[in-house]
Amino acid sequence: MINFDNVSKQYKNSNTPALDGINLSIEQGDFVFLVGQSGSGKSSLLRLLLKEEKPTSGTVTVDGINVAKLPNRKVPAFRRTMGIVFQDFRLLPGKTVFDNVAFGMEVIGKSKKEIQQRIPAILELVGLEEKAHRLPSELSGGEQQRVALARAFVNKPKLLLADEPTGNLDPSTSVGIMKLLDRINRTGTTIVMATHDVAIVDQMRKRIVQMENGKIIRDQERGMYGHTGQ
Amino acid sequence: MRFSFVSKEVGNGLRRNFTMTVALIVSVAVSLSLVGAALLMSAQVDRMKGYWYDKIEVSIFLCGNTSVAFTCTGAVTAEQRTNIETVLGSLESVQEIFYESSADAYAQFKEQFAGSAILANISPDALPESFRVKLDNPENFEKVAGALQSVQGVESIQDQRQLLDRFFQILKGLQSFALAIALAMLFVTVLLVMNTVRVAAFARRRETSIMRSVGASNMSIRLPFILEAAVAAIIGSTLATAGILASKYWLIDAKLAPNLTFIPFVTWSEVLAIVPMLYLVGVGTTVLAASITLRRYLKG
């Protein structure tokens, strides 16, 4: 599904590489935690997957596609195969829950009929079917992140990227979000989640890729955050 | 990309950016009115040229008793007159030749200046006899003048076109002036479009970043912005068109044409021919400016 082959990334105004010789392989249906301190390279890694940046050397392939060689006009179609959630939710403040999720379908040209059929089901999946006509400002942080997850997942992407999705949430709310991600993962969607959240990582017992100074220093199945397992 | 979705976005954008939209509409309307005025003036000049060039003649004045030109030795003789007529007849560009004797000229003069004091001071002798020559094309004056200027018995050759051309030059000057202001206004419009689009793109950076992350195509991200500019341009062009049509109806047809009957004015079909050009310039300029701006501010 995802393959990093000796990937390095050097930003123009920096002395040290953001990514330094990364080799990483993620299979379809995997659930991977990307952990490490701020500045360790997690976000750079996600950015390369989205083609927001190009690698300085090495190749990144997603679903058989060499991301760096993807022409710009094909980037939108490429992004449709993945869903993205962020720490700050990124909802549209003037739109209701329903419309926020619908936005993700409207911009890629889905019909009204498809939208009307699909959205109640996805809101039910994230547990917000009762709040479809509320505005984001009327929701709690956890609920807003559920809306963002619904929008990311509404087009059934093969890959879901999550950049610190629980970063703004309290621990008990975070658990709810993780359960949701787990459910999405069980539908066969690959999930790559960058996080700092020790408790979450330890609880989930999923694959852990730990980064430091642009290098992978640990890649462990069913790992725990502060534990090397050796 | 669904039509209802795009039109909803465009409507929202225009409403949110209301003052800028109004500024844009007015700017487009003013600059296009000037473009329209310049085009109208150019059509007017063409029409007058066509009308008057058809009527103008070259006058070849023949020597009289008091002439001092080197080709004159007293009044023109019958022989010289026949010779001049033969030379004229041999020229290719000459279409018609009229002969006007001093008496004819005096009769016409009397008619033109009836009741004026000038009449008392003029005798038929003071008005030279002449050939009035109609050319196939007024531009061929030089050929005729060249063939005749050293022929005995010819005192002077006058091209009526020269008189008209001075008048047309004034009109042309006005026209270029209007065009220059129009271009300056169009430039202002372009800057205004760029600024409006930039502000709109900044105000909606959240939407556009979300659109990009869910995989909306560049076209569908940019289209609402471009359409917003286009809608403002269409409204502005319509106002300018209304102004041009109104000036034809209330100014030219109602005020100028009845009082200046000797001037042929632009017709409705010529005025209507300008309208599509206004829309083309208005919408084309804004859409182009918007697209270029978005290329810079909404990178894919």
TrEMBL record, chain A:
Is Protein transport among this UniProt entry's keywords? no
Pfam families referenced in this protein's UniProt entry, alphabetically? ABC_tran
Where mainly located?
A: membrane
| Sorted UniProt keywords | ATP-binding, Cell cycle, Cell division, Cell membrane, Membrane, Nucleotide-binding
GO MF, any single term: ATP binding
UniProt GO cellular component terms:
plasma membrane
Q: Where in the cell is it found?
A: Cell membrane
Q: Name one GO biological process term.
A: cell division
What topology does the record note for this protein and the membrane? Peripheral membrane protein
Q: Which residues form the ABC transporter domain?
A: 2-230
Q: Which InterPro entries match?
A: AAA+_ATPase, ABC_transporter-like_ATP-bd, ABC_transporter-like_CS, ABC_transpr_LolD-like, Cell_div_FtsE, P-loop_NTPase
Family designation: Belongs to the ABC transporter superfamily.
Protein name listed in UniProt: Cell division ATP-binding protein FtsE
Q: Which organism is it from?
A: freshwater metagenome
